[in-house]
Specification:
Strand content: 5-15%
Order of helices and strands: EHEHH
Helix content: 40-55%
Structural class: mainly alpha
Radius of gyration: 18 Å
Largest sheet: 2 strands, parallel
Distance between the termini: 48 Å
């Protein structure tokens, strides 16, 4: 995909649920496999860390920061990042406004 769509494809975005005890490190052989080919294939990976299962505010803030980090540290140009961050902030603010006005499920 990277070779076919280089202008749309920056790399592989990987998230692993580590709570059960299996970290992304356990996939090291599979992740390195493309580099062992002849010729070697260099695949850029984007790993996530810091996910939490904490309830409430801490989890929302962590989710928000992870979303922001995925934009800030992406392979996009600075101009593309600014557009993406502004769009994300608008959607986040709309989500928060809707959540604040949500009185729960209809009876």
């Amino acid at each position: 995909m990277l070779a076919a769509f280089p202008e749309h494809f920056a790399g592989y975005d990987l998230v692993g649920q580590e709570d059960p005890g299996r970290t992304l490190l356990s996939y090291l052989d599979e992740l390195l496999y493309p580099s062992t080919l002849d010729p070697p294939v260099n695949l850029p990976y984007f790993f996530h860390a810091g996910e939490t299962s904490m309830p409430g505010r801490a989890r929302r803030l962590t989710t928000m920061q992870l979303a922001m980090n995925s934009l800030i540290y992406s392979a996009m140009t600075d101009a593309e990042k600014m557009v993406a961050i502004k769009a994300w902030e608008a959607k986040w603010n709309a989500f928060v406004r809707a959540a604040l006005h949500d009185t729960g499920p209809a009876a």
